[in-house]
Structure formats: C-alpha cells, structure tokens
Design brief:
The chain is an all-alpha fold. The protein has helices at about 1-20, 25-35, 40, 50-65, 80-95, 100-110, 115-145, 150-170, 175-195. It has two domains: about 1-60, Orthogonal Bundle (Arc Repressor Mutant, subunit A); about 65-200, Tetracycline Repressor, domain 2.
Length: about 200
C-alpha cells in the first residue's frame, strides 16, 4: 500500500512537473490532486527535491527498460529495410508513450535549472541516441548491409534530424503524423544512400 501511494505521488509529480515545471509545482496542489494532505506526501518524501530526485531515478530506469541503454541495446538489423522497421518502432514508442513524452517535457523545461536534468537531456536527446546507433551501424557494417564508413558520424547524421522531428511532435502534437512520415522518408533516403542490398 505504501509503495502504491509512493508510485501515485511520482506519477502525479511527473504530470505536474511536465505541465508547470519544478518551480510551478507545489506540494499542496500535488497532495490535493491525489486526495491527500501534505503530511501524507511528506510521509513518503521529505521534500519536493526528494520527489524530484526519485522521479529522475525512475526516468532513467524507465528509459533503459523500454527504449534502450548501453547495457540493453536493441538488436542489429539484418538488412537496410530492417533499419527502417527498427527506427519506426523506436520513434513510434517515444512519440506515443505518455510517460516518455512527459519525461521529455520535464527535461526540456528543467535542463537549465538542474544539473541532473541537463545531463539526462543531453543523454536522451543527443549522446545516448548517437551511441546506440553507432552500435547498430557498426553491426550492420559487419553484416555487410551498410556501406563501410565512420559509424559514429553516420549515427550522428542519422539521429539528429529524427530527434528534431520527435521534439516537433512534443511542441505541435497535431503534426505527429506528418513528422512520422518524414522520419520514415528520411530513414528510407538514408538506406538508399548508405545501405547495401544483396543485389548491390
């Protein structure tokens, strides 16, 4: 029961932080949204900062489990077409998973206030994606399905525009379908340029 309440507090905090930012969220409103008094929140977390840090820990674990991490890398596709499929699966998840969307909004809002949020934003919006696709592209080169080149540079060139389109979905949700179509078109353009097929 205590763990259930703790989880509910973190879920409500994620929602409020993503909408109002850290400074715009207070414990009184957070507790009221859960039907609790302030002391009911403080029973589980000693401060708003403690809630914030627990939420960041949860974000890290959730990303690692559902999206990937250096310890949990996605499988290397067997073909250029497999890269398109993998990319669309990953982008579809990150654009439509509610918790990931709210996490991205929180990191965007708080990256200039909090060092941990800044580091996580850099990792999830830039370096983590580049590292993940460096691994994927290196593996595809080894399998002979991607032209041999610098995998880190190819990964950077691949992930930067896709990341920009994901952020467009956050800013203007009505453009999500258009952005997803652009991601797929870009991925296909990319494999047309760098992919190696059996017939090549």
């Amino acid at each position: 029961m205590a763990n259930d309440t703790k989880e509910r507090i973190l879920e409500a905090a994620l929602l409020m932080f993503s909408q109002n930012g850290y400074a715009g969220t207070n414990i009184r409103e957070l507790s009221a949204s859960l039907g609790l008094v302030k002391s009911g929140v403080y029973k589980h977390f000693e401060s708003k900062e403690a809630i914030w840090n627990a939420l960041l820990d949860q974000m890290i674990a959730y990303y690692a489990e559902h999206f990937g991490s250096p310890e949990h890398l996605p499988p290397v596709p067997d073909s250029p077409e497999g890269l398109v499929t993998l990319t669309m699966q990953m982008v579809n998840f990150t654009v439509h998973d509610e918790k990931i969307v709210m996490t991205r909004k929180v990191l965007t809002l708080e990256q200039f206030r909090d060092d941990r949020a800044r580091d996580l934003a850099t990792k999830h919006f830039l370096t983590g994606l580049t590292e993940m696709f460096t691994h994927i592209f290196s593996g595809m080169m080894d399998k002979g399905s991607l032209r041999r080149d610098d995998p880190a540079m190819l990964a950077f060139a691949y992930t930067a525009p896709i990341s920009a389109l994901i952020h467009l979905c956050d800013r203007e949700p009505e453009k999500t379908d258009e952005a997803m179509a652009q991601v797929e078109a870009f991925s296909r353009y990319y494999i047309k340029t760098y992919g190696v097929t059996d017939n090549a």
